[in-house]
Amino acid sequence: MNKILITGHPQSGYQKVEHLLNSSGMKAAMPSRREGLLPVDIGVALCKAYNLPSISEIASERDIPQIDVAPVWHVMALDLLLGNIEQELWGWADPQSIYLLDYWITLDPKFTVILVYDEPHRALFESALEDFDPLTPDSLQHCLDSWTAYNRALVRFYMRNMERCLLVNSKQVLGDADGFLKKLNSLLDDIQLELDLSQIGVPVSANDDIDTYLIDRVIAEHPQSQQCFEDLQYLANEPIEETANQRAHPSDAWLTLIRQRRQFRQQLHQHIESRSQLEHKLQQQNKKLHALRIQFSLVKKQSDRSRELEALSQENELFLTQLHQVQEELERYYLENQKLRKKRDEPDDYGAADRIKQQLSYRLGAVMIKHSKNVSGWVAMPGALLKERRAFHLAKAEAPQKKRPPVHKYRDAHEAEKVKKQLSYRLGSVMVQHGANPIGWIKMPFALAKAYQSYRQYRQSLEK
Prior knowledge:
Distance between the termini: 48 Å
CATH topology of the largest domain: Rossmann fold
Oligomer: single chain
Number of strands: 5
Low-confidence stretches: none
Radius of gyration: 34 Å
CATH class of the largest domain: Alpha Beta
Structural class: mainly alpha
Helix content: 55-70%
């Protein structure tokens, strides 16, 4: 009875590897006989019993120990094995089983472990799409730290158990499924997985050239994740090939941005044209309404006889019905016209955060933080602050003053509020406020200390 355990980082694409194996002959795990527990349920219970953190809370490799499961818990696992004793080959996938790899392979010598990984780009991109996770530099750093710690744990386990493991890249598995299955078959006893070509999918990247280019720049500032990925590539049984060719060049990212802007302009022109058509229809309906009103007035005046009055009454009812229909159409066109006007008048400016960062307050605060890391920086700080202030006023005097809307009307005005809460802006605002007179310079050290304390309390409230 062969068993396969698939594990990998939540953003590694391990699910597609599991789907490939299921379509090639691996059966899904049956629940245990007595408790009706699946392998994932047993893993959740063990992680809870030993107070292990979830994958999203991992910050370093020290957070991923291989737990020594007490014998009292073996009953659940043995009951699971009995529930699947009739299956020649079965398995499951679970990222949380990173804590239990030693436990499972020690429990049964016929366990084969498939360790799945992907580039850190995927983890960074997919985590940024999660609405519940606030986008901050710290959150991006934590995402890469968590990815690095998890995959280093995979490497550590693989180095100790090469004869029972396969370390594979999920994209490469889908691109070379036949080669992957051949390597896996060499680890199985008396059974061979057969490739089902109808079930093979082509890995498609969800991010465009702009996303890829920017993520490359972020990853370049995190050498630990780059080194971890290189180690995975070096050790893997199925490493991804030609990853460098998948990187976006600056020109590709720029062209993609231009194409998106052109599409937006085209859509805007289409909305303007639709609005013109609606206004033309409105004018036509107004003319019809005016003609109907004149006709109704003339008919009403020509009611000399009772027979003519009766006929006129019927015509009036018809005209009233038409008037109501026209009125409803006019109201509908009016509402659509108002929506178009509102949509046209909305500002489409972006870059509220950059506007704040260009202000003198933020620039002075950034200089203070930069020069406060060592003694030589403190000595050079006054000169650096004076130089930054002169550069600001010189640039302001030389650059043409372009009239721009207020920051609160920007589409991303909320980003400006985030920048104002940063330490750079707070310190710089204190310096600008108190640097106008001698008394302010005397009060400035206390004001700076108060601003720094306020920032620390703000950071502590975020961490809670």
